[in-house]
Write a structure and sequence with these properties.
mainly alpha, 9 helices, single chain
Length: 211
């Protein structure tokens, strides 16, 4: 199991880099425009409440709120399965953020200009840091959850990843390929965190075995 986790993580990181190269070559431009035109151009027709909800969903996925959530979830998984799990979640979140920032600098993709941005942005577009964070935090949380909470945790992970990615596109600050790249990068670090915390087929912390 541990070897499979490492191989899968390496594959996702490679896929993120290859997608970034495809983005830089312009190979994703047509589908990115199609997705943005299908979603973003209708923002003006939606209610202010819906836009505010999208902004809220985006707000909790970045900046200070993101790290507050990570700290709280680290405390939760510490209670579930001990300090190693908490370190895995916090470390994977931090390292994935650094990797995302590094790739943004390396690829230097310009933000979308389909509409005026509905959220404040200061750096490059690929990969999405919000998507990276949502994937690493909530996928790893689901992996570390005790059995009785696991189904709910996986449902939460899916909902947060989709909502976060959708909000970033709707607010006009990311292309769809940015979201895909960020999600793959975050998933890679979630797998690395799961590997570090202990693979499923190895002895698990008592808190997880008893549930």
């Amino acid at each position: 199991m541990a070897r499979r986790l490492l191989i899968a993580a390496a594959g996702l990181i490679l896929a993120t880099v290859l997608l970034g190269l495809a983005v830089g070559a312009g190979w994703t431009q047509a589908i990115d425009l199609r997705v943005s035109n299908g979603l973003v151009l209708h923002v003006g027709e939606t209610s202010p409440a819906f836009i505010a909800f999208m902004q809220w969903a985006s707000w909790i996925g970045g900046g200070t709120p993101r790290w507050i959530i990570v700290i709280l979830l680290c405390a939760l998984v510490w209670r579930w399965c001990g300090p190693r799990c908490a370190i895995a979640l916090g470390g994977a979140s931090l390292l994935s953020n650094l990797a995302s920032t590094g790739l943004k600098i390396a690829f230097g993709r310009v933000r979308p200009d389909v509409i005026e941005h509905l959220d404040h942005v200061t750096n490059a577009s690929y990969p999405s840091g919000h998507a990276t964070n949502a994937a690493v935090v909530y996928l790893l949380l689901a992996w570390l959850a005790p059995p009785r909470w696991r189904r709910a945790a996986w449902s939460l992970a899916g909902a947060m990843i989709v909502l976060n990615g959708f909000s970033r596109i709707m607010l006009g600050v990311h292309w769809a390929s940015d979201i895909l790249g960020g999600t793959m990068l975050g998933a890679a670090f979630a797998l690395l965190g799961a590997w570090w915390a202990g693979a499923r087929d190895e002895p698990r912390p008592a808190a997880l075995r008893e549930s």
